[in-house]
Specification:
Layout (H helix, E strand, L loop, with lengths): L1 E7 L5 H10 L3 E6 L2 E7 H10 L5 E10 L3 H8 L14 E7 L8 H20 L12 E8 L2 E7 L21 H10 L8 E3 L6 H10 L23 H14 L7 E5 L2 H13 L6 E5 L12 E6 L13 H14 L3 E8 L13 E7 L2 E9 L2
Parallel strand pairs: 5-6, 8-9, 8-11, 9-10, 11-12
Antiparallel strand pairs: 1-3, 1-4, 2-3, 4-7, 6-7, 12-14, 13-14
Helix pairs in contact: 2-7, 3-4, 5-6
S-adenosylmethionine binds next to α6.
Amino acid sequence: MEYQLYATCPNELTDLLAREIVSIGGRDVRTDYRVVYFSASKEIAYKAHLSLRMASRICRILKEIPAQSPRIIFDKARKIRFHELFDATLPVAINVFAANDGGKISNDLIGSKLREAINDCFKYYLKKTPNRSSWNAPIGITGYYNHRRLLVSVDTSFESLHRRGFRVEGHPAPLKETLAAALLTVCEYDGTMPFYDPMCGSGTIAIEAAQIAINRAPLIHRQKGGFGLEYLHDFDPRLWQKIRKQLMADERNSKVRIFASDIQSQYVDISRQTVKNAKLVNMISIEKKDFFKTEKPAEHGLLIANIPYGLRLNDTQISKEYLRALGDKLKNSYKGWRCGILAPVSAPLKEVGLKPLRQVPFLNGTVPVKLLVFDIY
Ligand SMILES: C[S@@+](CC[C@H](N)C(=O)[O-])C[C@H]1O[C@@H](n2cnc3c(N)ncnc32)[C@H](O)[C@@H]1O
């Protein structure tokens, strides 16, 4: 059985995610706006849910239907055999999103046509009225409306995949785990060298680095019932357990040292608790330190710093002097290290005074940012 799937992610991540999907055995991989399409056996599809580091959601395509009018949407969608996919008792959420040039029918109207089609299907085949609630629904039916066509899918992730399940709240500007994984990928981090985040906030990047170092599938500890695919009629619990066990067996011991620090003791506490929840205490050491007073913790390694900006601080506070001091610190104290600096594009980044090896744009929430990568000699 080959599934047609797509994984969603921010648009800047599609190429990186496509490579990740190829690396776990996905086939026919193709990128589009904010999605990566692929096909996969059930085994690879299960693996994708547990091990992709940069995917936000994974959806299984049910059917692509013409969508010239609400009537046509209903007529075509009611032919999808929803009753063979999930149980009538389960709450179903319906999400519709449209490409910029999607068409003239509103997302709400498309959503209500999909809901009618699901109801009609269960009534016709099973003489049952399906659950009408969409609250905390493990079944997500997604419609993607583009060029007067509607791609109808079932979202098999349930909760977004960036939620690894161990974050401690309290930091005002944590990165999404999927973005942290992308930063490490852009810096070519393979988990064999020391890693240091000297402005770690809640510890997101250090934790992703540690998970790479021990080859841990990032969603392996999500609780039973935490994925949408577990609620579908074709869910194969034996295969699921087999894949989980394989992934756990693939985890390796690592002597690689991961360091994190922050100038604020309350964020050091948050990071420590998050690292504890992630069961990575033995790998990651966290200290309270001012970056400008640090020394490199090993001869060679990778440093990534998501410098402060945004929610609380005005971007303009990233002054020329601050960036000059940052560049000087890297030059003077981090010889032999690769250093990635994530900063808003609006900052005067030339002032760092180092020639970047590469510069990669991202969106951090709504803030356009850039990862500048430097090799310090
Ligand atoms: C944008 S936040 C980092 C968020 C982090 N990437 C996460 O995912 O939670 C920037 C952090 O830098 C810290 N910071 C600011 N100036 C610092 C300095 N001179 N030395 C060390 N940390 C600093 C702040 O306390 C803040 O937690």
